[in-house]
Design brief:
- The structure is a homotetramer.
- By secondary structure, chain A is of the alpha/beta class.
- The first copy, chain A, has two domains: 120 residues, NAD(P)-binding Rossmann-like Domain (Rossmann fold), CATH 3.40.50; 171 residues, Dihydrodipicolinate Reductase, domain 2.
- The first copy, chain A, is 39% helix and 24% strand.
- Chain A has 13 helices and 15 strands.
- The first copy, chain A, has a seven-stranded mixed sheet with strand order 12-11-7-10-9-8-15.
- In chain A, a hairpin with a 3-residue loop joins strand 11 and strand 12.
- The radius of gyration of chain A is 21 Å and the shape is globular.
- Chain A starts with 7 loop residues before the first strand and ends with a strand.
- Chains in contact: A-B, A-C, A-D, B-C, B-D, C-D.
- The interface between A and C is large, with 38 and 38 residues.
């Protein structure tokens, strides 16, 4: 066990599903002190806060107005439409921010947030957690080490399980920004450059989703400057579990990240060979990634020097992923390929 | 061992790589007699014929002119540009034909061949061997049995190994007709209907292939009447072996056909867990399929009744697959999606 | 997130490798308060205690003498030879104990500890963690649900990685009590009864281990009342990782628990198909089990009613496993099978 | 396709299940002519012979008396008790013999057969087909190439599917000579030396097998001169298929040969991930091995020079495997380990 360091004082803002994951993870980080918990739902923040003997507030503004808490960083895990305002509130006080994806709904707001972070010299980290998944990082490292040579074809599969509630889907921003953006970011990360064109098509097999004018099944095709081609396939409901795979073909070989069964048990009988189902949901699939991204945030809080260079999810990543997601949606709606400019 | 039947007398026409596979397979079929071997290359047919004590000819025309051989069926395994003439030569004599893919280069010739077969009441079977592969048949049966429900996304991967010779590629007809047609046929077979639109894109990473105005890496996207979406990815050179996979997502689950390692050996050491490479080439990958399609042909020869209904590869399969391959190539060359009509 | 409960006040006694695992795990349990940390090594307990603002002591006796701490339960993670004394110290005060395996070195002392627990009505849980591993529990449940019918052959593989230090091995108690006992307990757990005979053989490939008069590679064979046969194979040094597998053959099928690769990454190239190495050590392999056994302990602390019936590791398990391990060692040393009586 | 060679004229003696496998395999060998088929069952030989236009006889003696057939080699695939006489009949005429396992029932007869072969300078090959299986050969080569270093633990699993008929089992010679001998030979082959001691135990779960005084489930343990330990586990009825696995642990790593599913199809749904069953029987599992051993025999027939050195299954292999099988049976019946001498 390493030498103890001075504790980083963090505020958790938003205690929904993802906020609770970060809460538990931070409890295991001996160099972190959760100094306050914030949530607009009455009692939600207090309930958690009481269990670890910390303070709770109904809003970040209330916390700042209170003035009694010294804050080294804030984790924003609230609904998407509140992100921009909360990000700015923290940054303007010089407080580093970890913000769940997306930082903002519009490109203009994204740019404003990062401009403010740059102006204030304060780290802003957006939570594209797949970049922190140990299997995906291992895959990325294999590519960067030249193990498969120049990339030719990249394929990702992202299929939800279980089917999200229609109530959630109505406010999700649509499958392109809610789901596909994760994949688009992964493709950009693996390629290390921006695509030149996107073509997409989709369908709503659920009438409820059709009525939202959204899609539940989508395929996206991206073209890259070197001639490489990407495909992304998405589905809102894979009965067999949360299906999250990457496959990259290069001139020298192929690297894949496969799904992970929940156990290693295999049953063989007259009907065949049976393995257990794969991870059930994003909380099962990405526990290490959620922890790792917070650890990255803590490093940025500890040392702001050259923070923009150190960021593992940068302004351009958030910005351009959003532009590509919008172009993919445009392609699906018009039936035509869309050239990309950034 | 089943009761012996009267022997079917077959002629093998063309003794290149695929012809030799059929030759060896027929030796194990106790109800088949290879009554003659035909090849234009001097000595090639004779060399094989001598080993089993049968006759050899330089051409099918010569064999028919000779008149000494009674023929129940002919296997045509010659270069593509000779197919149509040889198919017609046999059909016009009332002799059933198994013809390697494609039956003809143009849609008009395809239609002529099948019109003649229908007119004469003589079976014509085209060798789309993937429909006979035991794993693919198993996958198709799972779909037809409703195990995955309505199909939503179909993906096939077809990557050559080793890189075919540039000499071959120059005469291959291009990656869309030579390679992608196999995948297009598989998608049509699995869906049980025709696609409504195709979008494709490709690149030549090898300058020799670029100079042929062909592609070595291609992705094709197909849209289906029910909203399902297909992707096909092709590459002329997968270093790790002949990569042939199918994945079908349905409303109730997913079915995949994976690659087959050459052995079942696994070596575990400090560097990881190592399995042997997968099948090296189509001859390694599809031995059962090549045998099974000839057995299907023999059944058609034995009983011509309702042969068109019994055909596992029909006129429409050959015709429409070719139309879609041409449309995919048009899409790749124009950069635009192409609506399909048949 | 469940309703908060009153907190259970636990003392961690011993902060070596396994003690630190329990420490971190308890931090994530919102219903647990670590009220003190104990370790004889000067500063070791204090270093951890300071990070969470709790008390530290040099010994359990000192803690009890101090009188300032209310204790609901104690975790004993100290060296084996200290276990019995510490277990009795707690039990005699009416404090429930979780004790790392083994509870004592001799059968007599094991019996004394449990007799005291029974007399005082205080839970004593011994840490055979494999019974809490999610894959092994899943396998056990499949057997108990009758999925493989009557058991015929049981095989476990337990191979260390990396090679433990010779210094540790000199004090380990020998491979039969240190390592094989885990497997023996698993076989007893799966069979649900006691074996009737044991035969074992072993060899020391490392001269350092031969000089200790110990073995580094061992095979044990157990016979069961119904005629079933078990094998256990152990090795102190598997280069490829910590190899922990179970295989059970029954009349209706087979169930296995396989190893888990560290990532899901697969690299395919000319040399074959490569997966990442498996778990490196017991800390990588059994994180869920270590957490789960403490949660079981907390349940016993919360409700002592019928604690002996609820125990997932009982007196007989600890006692008989030790008897069998001794008999296995006797067999290896004499070269003869040994009948078992309990 | 290689240059044609002069044909080797072989006689197939015995057309049961294994004889028919060799029959079909030889049809694909262009350098082999099946000059006669022999079987004592009236009509059995004739039925096959007629299909390829060759001669048939009721016995080898009849064939030799007939004098009309020139014979380069004989394949003996008759019931075990007839082997010795037929082997000697051929060898005494200077005709090479391939004989299915075992060459004889007693060690004395085995020695007599090989003495005669040596005296006459005529190859005698015994059909331990596992030495010719491509996966097992690959595993053996990995060991011989030093990839896992010195061997420490060897494990094989051999489980029949389906349960052989009780009628067959009554004449099988018992599980040790019928089944275990294959595994014993594999262990000797992999180790490259003879074991020093054997311990075995077994049980009959089927009362019919108990009544034969045989076992249906057996575990054998072998000790080797270098300290390595082997286990063999056998079962007459594995519901999930014909289970044939090898695992070898060495100082540098582990090499395994796993089972092969019948297809590569995987179905994923709410219940888990399902692969097809493994090979159903020895005919499914070892097709390449059966072919390869006959090709080895043909090489020996073509060139007898130093045939004993070239033999891939030697006199000592047949002899010592039989001695070990007998000792294993003795151990199971007496409950004591048995020292081995050869």
């Amino acid at each position: 066990m390493a030498e103890p360091q001075s504790k980083i004082r963090l505020v958790l803002c938003g205690v929904g599903r993802i906020g609770q994951i970060h809460f538990i993870d931070m409890l295991t980080m001996l160099d972190v002190e959760i100094v306050a918990i914030v949530d607009a739902v009455p009692g939600a923040a207090k309930k958690l806060a009481d269990q670890i003997g910390t303070k709770s507030f109904a809003s970040l503004q209330e916390l700042f107005d209170d003035g009694s808490v010294t804050v080294d960083g804030v984790l924003i895990c609230t609904p998407t439409h509140t992100h921009t305002e909360l990000v700015k509130l923290c940054l303007s006080r010089g407080i580093p921010v970890f913000c769940e994806k997306p930082v903002a709904v519009t490109i203009e707001e994204v740019d404003e947030c990062y401009a403010l972070a740059r102006e204030k010299g304060v780290p802003l980290l957006c939570g594209y957690q797949r970049r922190f998944d140990s299997s995906f990082v291992r895959l990325k490292n294999a590519i960067d080490a030249g193990q498969i040579g120049e990339i030719r074809i990249v394929k990702t599969t992202s299929r939800d399980h279980p089917l999200p509630s229609f109530a959630f889907l109505r406010t999700s921003g649509g499958i392109f920004h809610d789901s596909a953006s994760h994949d688009i970011d992964v493709h950009r990360w693996l390629m290390g450059c921006e695509p030149v064109e996107v073509f997409a098509t989709g369908h709503a097999f659920y009438k409820e989703i059709a009525e939202m004018n959204d899609y539940d099944s989508v395929v996206i095709l991206l073209k890259w400057p070197n001639g490489a081609i990407s495909t992304i396939d998405l589905c809102r409901n894979a009965t067999y579990g949360y299906d999250q795979r990457i496959e990259v073909l290069g001139e020298k070989g192929m690297v894949q990240a496969e799904n992970k069964p929940q156990t290693t048990v295999v049953i063989s009988n007259e009907a065949g060979i049976h393995h257990d189902v794969i991870s059930h949901s994003f909380t099962d699939r990405y526990p290490d990634a959620y922890k790792s991204e917070i650890q990255h945030f803590i490093q940025l809080v500890r040392d702001r020097t050259n923070w923009e260079a150190k960021l593992r999810v940068k302004h351009a990543d958030v910005r351009n992923t959003s532009i590509i997601a919008s172009a993919a949606e445009e392609s699906a709606r018009t039936g035509k390929p869309v050239k990309l400019t950034f």
